[in-house]
Amino acid sequence: MGPVCSARKPNSKTQKQKEEFKTNNQPCLEATSLAGQSLPLEIKNDSNLEQMVQDLMKLFKRFSMFLDLVGNLDQLPQLTRDKINTCIVIKQNISIIIQNNVKRVMREQQIIKRIDESDYYLIYNDRKFAATINQLMSKLSNVILTDLKPDEDFQSAFPILAVSFEEEAQKINTIVEKFKNNINFSIRKGSSQHSLSIPQQQAKRKSSQQ
Questions:
Q1: What DSSP designation does 76 have?
Q2: Where is this region: Disordered (predicted)?
Q3: What is the pLDDT of residue 4?
Q4: Is 0.85 topped by the overall pTM?
Q5: For residues 17 and 37, what is the distance between their CA atoms, to the nearest angstrom?
Q6: % of residues, the chain, pLDDT over 90
Q7: How far apart are CA 172 and CA 138, in angstroms?
Q8: CA-CA distance, 97 to 134, in Å (whole number)?
Q9: pLDDT at 198 over 60
Q10: How many CA atoms does the CB half-sphere of 154 hold within 13 Å?
């Protein structure tokens, strides 16, 4: 019986060593190296989002001011009037969305007061609003650059405003592109964080086996 017992112990020890070697040598990401970065990256994303929304709001305010300077459209061809009216409709939609989202956040935070421009900061870091205004502002810049810029009737009727419209549209496109990059970065970061679950599960399994 002695030799039989002594033969089993090495097998058990060898099996345990093999399991530990197999677990420890699984290819995986180092959890501590990425986990320590997740919080600063998230703060950076929120800060970028807030700044981009704030910039879009400023550009929207400037564009609204320029659009209000457009005078009587009766002398313009119908097609040109339709293009300008499209910009007006988008502007009105954005104004409504801003008001509705500020009201929503105020309601959620139980803030009771009349809305004014100083309350817009409440939606600067709201991702749902950010996606909506980004989409509408992108549509607005597209109308300006694709439809109004090559329109000779608009250019001749409003030569100074036409230049201002184009400049604002280019600025809008810059912010829109930054927004897309921020979203792509968030998706990549989310994928990296998700992959951390593998080594975490392995560590937990190893701990339970000890």
A1: S
A2: 1-23
A3: 45
A4: no
A5: 33
A6: 55
A7: 7
A8: 12
A9: no
A10: 25
Pull the structure tokens for residue 109.
């935070």
> What's the one-letter identity of residue 116?
D
With residue 47 as reference, give the H or E element that holds it. Answer: helix 31-68
Q: Which of 3-17, 22-36, 123-137, 182-196 has the highest mean pLDDT?
A: 123-137
Residues above pLDDT 70, as percent of the chain: 64
CA 186 to chain centre: 8
Q: Which of the two residues, 206 and 183, has the higher pLDDT score?
A: 183
Write the DSSP symbol of residue 16: H
Q: Which residues make Cβ contacts (< 8 Å) with residue 117, sequence separation at least 6?
A: none
Instruction: Report the Cα–Cα distance between both ends of the chain, in Å, rounded.
Output: 28
Check if the beta carbon of residue 202 is closer than 8 Å to that of residue 26: yes
Task: Report which of 194, 142, 200, 199 is spatially closest to residue 173, judged by C-alpha positions.
Answer: 142
- Tokens read off for 119: 């309350």
Structure tokens at 25: 């040598």
